[in-house]
Amino acid sequence: MVGKRQAGFTIIEITLFMAITGLLFLIAVAGTGNTIRTFRFTDSGRSLEAFAQKQYDDVINGLNNRSSDVSCTNGAVDIDTAQTIGSSNCLLMGKLVVFRSGNPVVTTYNVVGTEPSGVNYSLSDDDLISAFQPQAVTNTATSTYTIPWGAAPSGFKRTTDNTATNGLLLIRSPKSSRLVSYTFVVPPTVPTNLSSVVNTAVNRSQATNICIKNADGVGAPARLEINGGASQNAAKIIFNAADTECNGV
């Protein structure tokens, strides 16, 4: 009597099955990882855009977060002396936003000025801003924003002269409440006196690109475009940018 052959899989068939299954699993995992990376980077860019737009909105609306625990006289803020809100001769003029290459943390400072004696309000907005001598408040009420998912600035460029400007200064005119933007290079130590910034014409109302890259540095950067305008719509995020769009010097 001839024995029946038992049905089953050979070692080769099982090995091929496991290899193909493993390959498909790896493809699925890689695809999922790329999708997650893309979603996270999109969130990073959109969040940065919303943050930039909020800075414009806060300055336009005159938002003041100074507490009564500090005082301000002639543009100098004293963190050791209390002062009744509204009794200071300082004027909240705007904000200074500072970006650092490779650092996901963006720092924001209040900017104050002082009304000069006998000021002439018939001057232009630019001249009035200069006359009020804006000062960055670096010893109190600073705030930070962290770009989500580890994305960080990878380059800066003011498009008019290719300067790598990493500072955005937003000033509200004492006369018309018009917002004027300035872009400039902020050194490692943030300057207090901003008079030279506002008195330099090339800094004023210029389009500037700020690129950010994914946490792992893979893929094209996103570009935050500051168009030099005076509204909260002056900032726009653009994905799939080129590195050359932000490689200022």
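Second entry:
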Amino acid sequence: MRNAVETSKVTLSKSASTAMHRVGLSWFGVLLVLVMAVLPFIPPFNSEFILRWMVVGAFMAAQAVAFDLTAGFINVVNFGFAAIVGVGAYTSAILTNTGPHIIVHPGLSPWMGIFFGAVVAAFLGFILGFLTLRLRGLYAAIMAWFVGIALLGLARTLTPLTRGALGMSPPLLFNTPSNLPYYYVALLFMLFIYIVTKLVTTSHVGLAFKALGQNFDAARASGVNPTFYRVLNFTLSCFFAGMLGGFYAHYFVSLTPNAVMHTSRTVEVLAIAFIGGRGFLWGGIVVAFPFVFLLQYLNSALPKFPGLHIVIYGVMMILVMIYYPDGVAGLIKQLGNWWQKRKKTENGQNI
């Protein structure tokens, strides 16, 4: 009986480990998620201004994961990513509008607005996938950038819908001044995007993504349909971008084209994804929180140096590209492999 119970426990443990591995989590990762969930109740993280930094950290981490799905797997840097986020934000803001400032005021729920913003962004990703289908590397990135510039221009000029530079004030997602509910929503969005992208990239679809990213011609010669998989990748990545854009609109409740759609916003996400480790997905999550805390502190401590965060991003990217091309995630993985080899060696010597 005792042996049967122990065998059952071992089987359950293996099943749980297999399920977690499937969605890209380890026991250490689950522990970190639990820590992040209870952190807002521990001083000084329970203060509102630090909670706001944590919301921004989760928001940037989620963007980095969505961005890495394209940059890290099909090897196309979507320089129009921030513009797609902006499309989701403006779609949600317009659909939830109830005031007389723009020509339409449907008055939908912010949750419905976020969903429709994600759908519209996914449709644009679908189109962007076709536009860049025959382009590779830098040319595909430039095409995505041009599309982003066009979308930014539309947001500036369609003043009856977007109010242009005057900006919009979408309704809040929650009727509370506290940042706590927004933190949990951002955290859930981050986990949802990570788990879905991990499930996709560990399937045969992810294998096709990697094949296209490593050698486009060889993948096509092997039977991989570049049209289907590239368009699917862009559509999925932009769906997540639009969803996060809707969250941005109803959290910051101040929406202007430059604030959300400018290329510099894409550069911030790109830097976090690349420093974290391109193609790992979780690397951007590891990097986003400490970077946001550091940069927010520098912005408040050194207000006379605007744009300092871009300089820090640039320096960090240069260092990573020279010394650790796989980023922080690659370094952590390398340390983990070294530790496992050391333990195996020690166990062999003990035997």
